[in-house]
Amino acid sequence: MSAARDAAVGATPSVSPDAQHVAEAARDAMLRGDRSTHALGIRIEAVGPGTCTATMTVREDMLNGHAICHGGLIATLADSAFAFACNAYNEITVASGFDVNLLAAAKLGDVLTAQAVEVSKSGRTGVYDVSVRNQHGEAVAAFRGRSYSMKGKALVQGLPMGRQGA
User: Are 54 and 143 in contact (CB under 8 A)?
Assistant: First the structure.
């Protein structure tokens, strides 16, 4: 079981300080160029090896014709959390696909929290689950992402790649 999955099920994960440092450096490198995350006001609240927590406040320009948050923007929040979680090992990693289930409407002013957790990582591929909840803890979306790592391609030069005590 991965450290990320251990944390999700309440076990005490054993994450080395080096692995945490790598995850934070990868987050910082990605944030510098991530225009969509900035444009949507998505905040990366926490990151660790295989994990990420991101938040987004639903703004008026995010509402569709039914006066609820556009589902694609909820999926984008989840996708951003997924991206930061799967890149936390300092290997350039991209999505190879994802599925999203929209469970409840998000309304103007709602603060949505996406929590991404690594389910499996083997070789170049990984699977991550992301839950999106509103400020009341109500489930808004369930997202499952599939990742593909570019072996040997570091996000941050000079730092280790791959699992480091995670």
Answer: no
Q: Which is it for the CA torsion 145, 19, 133, 30, positive or negative? A: negative
pLDDT tens digits for 43-94?
999 999 999 999 999 999 999 999 999 999 999 999 999 999 999 999 999 9
Question: Quick check: 118 and 5 in contact, CB under 8 A?
Answer: yes
Going from the C-alpha of 158 to that of each of 14, 81, 91, the distances in angstroms are 23, 24, 12
pTM of the model: 0.88
Q: CA 36, 39, 42, 47 torsion: positive or negative? A: positive
Give 25's DSSP letter.
Answer: H
Instruction: Choose which CATH entry (3.10.129.10, 3.30.420.200, 3.40.630.30, 3.40.50.2000) describes domain 3-9+16-154.
Output: 3.10.129.10
Band (pLDDT 50/70/90 cuts) for residue 17 is low
Sign, Cα dihedral of 164, 158, 82, 98: negative
Residues 6 or more apart from 154 whose CB is under 8 A from it? 90, 91, 92, 161
Residue-range domain boundaries for the chain: 3-9+16-154
Q: How many CB atoms lie within 10 A of CB 6?
A: 16
